[in-house]
UniProtKB/TrEMBL annotation:
K(+) binds at residues 95, 159, 195. GO terms for cellular component: mitochondrion. It comes from Parnassius apollo. It catalyses: (6R)-NADPHX = (6S)-NADPHX; (6R)-NADHX = (6S)-NADHX. Its EC number is 5.1.99.6. Residues 1-23 form the signal peptide. This is NAD(P)H-hydrate epimerase.
Length: 266
């Protein structure tokens, strides 16, 4: 009996030190992800071209990997238990294609998914991705409801409007979609960069999108530094990068846990 009491007493004394150790390990892991190289717009474009030309990745291959990473990050940050319906706003470029892929995967993850795709790209790849969405039961919205009504049907918004090639100003035809993301009153998950932001300088002086989550793809861009994102969660999806790319662009990337395709960064 006395031995049991001694063991219990020792456990009580050690518990605070164990918690401190665990906290310090977690803090260390996150702090290690802060010391990263953030890509300029020029570097981001060049990296993509290297993947296509030097490493022979195809557009649809990278899009599938990116869209799956986006869906995984959204599910991690906003699970179906609390956010079971999602509206994905897709733009006309590769960022929009990532959103179409993410829509399919989120449906498989158990979400009720709708897509708004106001300026469709007339290319076979994008037409196929949209067709797949329809076949998986994704609701395609031709018109958006007013921003103040989005909360009636959705719990989370996914911003796949503009990618790292974006340069202000926003085209008039896409302003309503961006306004819905800004004024919808729902958490917004931005694909690679928050739409409307300068890729290097972050949000401009006008009313800007304030994402709750950013999913960087391949490597984070300058506008996703903590000073711009504030309290937003930040995940990275880019486990497919070849070692040569990582070395060429001096990328210091966090380690992906287990078989995960995403990792949270500072």
């Amino acid at each position: 009996m006395s031995k049991l009491i001694n063991n219990l007493f020792r456990s009580v004394l050690l518990l605070p030190f164990v918690n401190v150790f665990r906290s310090s390990v977690t803090s260390s892991k996150l702090s290690n992800t802060c010391n990263m190289h953030y890509l300029t717009q020029e570097e981001a474009v060049a990296l993509d071209q290297d993947l296509f030309n030097e490493y022979k990745f195809s557009v649809d291959q990278l899009m599938e990997l990116a869209g799956l990473s986006v869906a995984a990050a959204v599910a991690k940050a906003f699970p179906t238990s609390t956010h079971n319906s999602a509206l994905i706003v897709c733009g006309p470029g590769n960022n929009g294609g990532d959103g179409l892929v993410a829509a399919r995967h989120l449906t498989l993850f158990g979400y009720n998914v709708s897509v708004h795709y106001p300026k469709r790209t007339p290319k076979p790849l994008y037409e196929s991705l949209l067709h797949q969405c329809k076949q998986f039961g994704v609701n395609i919205l031709d018109c958006l409801p007013p921003p103040n009504e989005l909360q009636k049907d959705y719990k989370v918004l996914v911003d796949a409007l503009f990618g790292f090639s974006f340069k202000p100003p926003v085209r008039e035809s896409l302003k309503p979609a961006l306004d819905a993301l800004i004024d919808g009153g729902l958490p917004v998950c931005s694909v690679d960069i928050p739409s409307g932001w300068d890729v290097e300088k972050g949000p401009g002086p006008d009313k800007a999108l304030k994402p709750a989550l950013v999913i960087s793809l391949s490597a984070p861009k300058l506008c996703t530094q903590p000073e711009f994102l504030g309290t937003a969660k930040h995940y990275l999806g880019g486990r497919f990068l070849p070692p040569g790319i990582i070395a060429k662009y001096n990328l210091t990337l966090p380690s992906y846990p287990n078989q995960d395709q995403i990792v949270q960064i500072c």
